[in-house]
Amino acid sequence: MNKKLMLSLICSILLLITLQTKVNADSPAHNVEDVFTNEFFQDGSYTNQINGGKGGSKFTGYDNNIRNISMGIDQNEKYIELTYGSKGSKGGNDRYVNFQMEFNNKLRNNNNMIDGSKTKIYHNLEKENSRTKPVLLSSMHQYNNNNNDGQKVYSYSFDFKNYHSGSITLRIYFKNDAKERNFSYGSKEPLIYLYYKSGDKKYDKDNNFKSEFHIFETAQTFYYDDLVNAMINRIQKERADFQSIVENSTLLNDYKNQLSNKINKTTLFTKRKNPIYLSYPKITSINQILQVIDTQENIISSLQKITLLKINNFPSLNFQTKSSNDNSTNLSKSIKLQISKFNIPSFHISLSLSPLVNKNNALFGQTFYIDNKLVNPNVTFNYFNKQSTDNSTDYYQMPNIKLNFPPYTAPSGNYKGTATWNLVDGP
User: Fold this and answer.
1) Whole-angstrom distance, CA of residue 79 vs CA of residue 235
2) Which of the residues 31, 119, 138, 427 has an alpha carbon 20 to 30 A from that of 18?
3) Alpha-carbon separation of residue 93 from 56, 103, 158, 215 (angstroms)
4) Which residues are the signal sequence here (predicted)?
5) How far is 170 from 135, CA to CA, in rounded Å?
């Protein structure tokens, strides 16, 4: 081999070794203002790790997936909330977490859509006894990136002593007069781009890129599909919980079927094969963020209002036969009232008894004694004598009712009156 060729080969090997060393040691030491590059938008997500130092070579306990997705209404504005990043643990030294996010084109004009004075991030909200303080979107560092037209990136770093990693909880508020644009479920349309880096301040170029502990860096995309699926999961859980209560109750099967149909209709549920979103075709056709939140809130509110109250045949109150000079008589038998119910937190029953009359005469001077308390005709009294209850039925025992009347005030005969039952605080 001639010297010129050998020299060229040696240079190539050295160049390869140099490049390989740089990739292993330096990757992915991104410039904080150069995260959401064109390469990221082509892929939508990536995960890179730097290991070495005291942390060893294995990464354990990291969960950097987007999770805990929820939505609702708070402070009179609609919001979505999600968590991203690792839960964190003690250890390390002089560490930091850098969080960045960027909205897609349809949400970038956040002054008209997103309420930056309420939108906030929390560090490590998942961790018990966390001393995190929220950071408002309006307080986060902002910079424009030329990689994407109109791109505005929000960035914030949390610094720690003796700490390792940590999650970010993001709550985004939307203005009430926001003018939305449509999204399409099933097409993987992005909503928010998320970046997270758990770094070590002792990591530097002068120390051969050796870190005290792991450096972890990841970026992911939160999609419109993720938001709709979170709504489906919440509604599915609420629906399943209601169905379980109904099925485990002592209601008659007819009542159970009525309630199940009502629950499914309320949640826009039509049983289909897996995956579960196929059972909610009306929900997956909703194409705006605020409509998704409204739909969830309306369905859950309607679910909570589903009730059933069935009183099984009000009893006839028959007094024992007595002569007109006996002065009083009691009910002829003990009477129980059975009430089937579902999702009714509290109610009670009242009762009033009319004067007793027959075709030709009224029973003059009559009064009633309810558990030895005087009650005049047509006066309502509370009927609280609930004896027992189970999953879906209350059982009421009729109190002792005595009819009093002066002797010889009316001829013998059959006298009738009306018992009026009143349901109080019921559905």
Assistant:
1) 17
2) 31
3) 15, 33, 13, 12
4) 1-25
5) 10
